[in-house]
Design a protein that fits this description.
- It is a single chain.
- By secondary structure, this protein is α/β, with parallel strands linked by helices.
- 45% of the residues lie in helices and 15% in strands.
- It has 14 helices and twelve strands.
- Strands 2-1-3-4-5-11 form a six-stranded parallel sheet, sandwiched between helices. A six-stranded mixed sheet has the order 7-6-8-9-10-12, sandwiched between helices.
- The radius of gyration is 24 Å and the shape is elongated.
- The protein starts with 14 loop residues before the first helix and ends in a 5-residue tail after the last strand.
Length: 351
Amino acid sequence: MANEAPHTPPRAPTLEDVAQVAGVSRATVSRVINNTRNVDPALHETVWQAVEATGYVPNRAARSLVTRRAGSVALVVSEGESRNEDDPFYSRFLGDPFFGRVLGGVLSVLNPAGVHVPLTLVGSETARTKLVGDLRQGQLDGVLVLSLHPQDPLPRLLTEARVPAVLFGRPAEPIPISYVDIAQQTASKLASEHLLARGCRTIAAIAGSLDMPAGHDRLVSFRSAMAQNGYAYVPAVEGGFTQEGGERAMTRLLAEHPDIDGVYAANDVMAQGAVHVLRDSGRRVPDDVAVIGFDDSSAAVASRPPLTTVRQPVEDMAAEMARMIMGQIDHAGARTTSVIFEPTLVVRRSA
C-alpha cells in the first residue's frame, strides 16, 4: 500500500481573506474589527458579513493590546441583596419578557460592533466588588445596568469608581449616572384618558413594587393624571410586577371595590393576571371592566383578550443605552446624560 500523504490541517482564515471577500483593504478590516469609530456603517456591515463568511476569528487578546479595550460590555441585572437560584427573582428574570427585549436591543448595537455582552446577575457585596474591580482593571469596558431596588448600592459604586455605566430607568437617588427612561406622566395621561373616554368611572390601579422608581412613578403619575380629571382618589394595590402579584391585587381590589369598571396595571404581566381573576369572577373584559397594561410586551398579545397597553419602546431604549456606553468608552470624562422616550397607547380588545 502506498504511503498516504501527511494530513495538512486547513489554514485559518486571515485578515487578508476577509478583505478579499469584503472587497476592501486590510486596513479597513482591521479598523472595523478593532471597533475604530468613524467607519462607514455600510462598510462596517460588509466587513462583518465577510468575517462570518470566511469563519475568521478575531484575536481578542491581540486586539486588546492594540485598542486597550476588553471588547466586552456587561449587561448587569442588579439586586440590593444576595439571591440564589430558587429565589423568585431568577425565575422572573428568565420569564419576564421585559428582560429579553432589553437584551435584544443591546445586542442590536453591540453585536455588529464586535463587542461581547456577558450577562451578569449581581446581588452581593462580593459580586459588586468583583464587577467594579473588573472595570477598573480593564477586563470590562463598561456596564449597562438594570437596577431593581433603590437600596441597591451598585449605581453609586459605579459613579464613585468613574467607570462607563448607563442605567435603564432613572436612579432612585440623584447621582451622576447616565440613564434612559420613559416619560411616565405622558404614559399615565394616555391610560387615564382612554379609560375615561370609554366611560369608566370607578378606576383602580395595580402598582408595581413601590420601592422601585418605576413602580412609584407610575402610580404617582397615574393618580396625578386622574386628579386632573376630577378624581381625587384612586384605589391601588401593589402587585410587585409579577402575574401572581397582579392576580392577588385584582382579587383584593374586587373585594374592597366591587363596582370597579377600569384598571390600569403598571406592567403587562400584572394586567394579564388581573384579566384572569376578572374572568374567573364572572366579569367580562372589557364590557364590565376595562384593563390597560404597560410595556406592550409579548404578555399583552398572549392575554385573552389581548391587552390595550402603554407601549414602552424597550428595544429602542436598550439600543440607546448601548450607543451611550460606547460614547462613554470612546470619550473618557464625557458628561452624564439622560434620554427620555415617549410612550404610545396600543389599543387592543381589553379596553
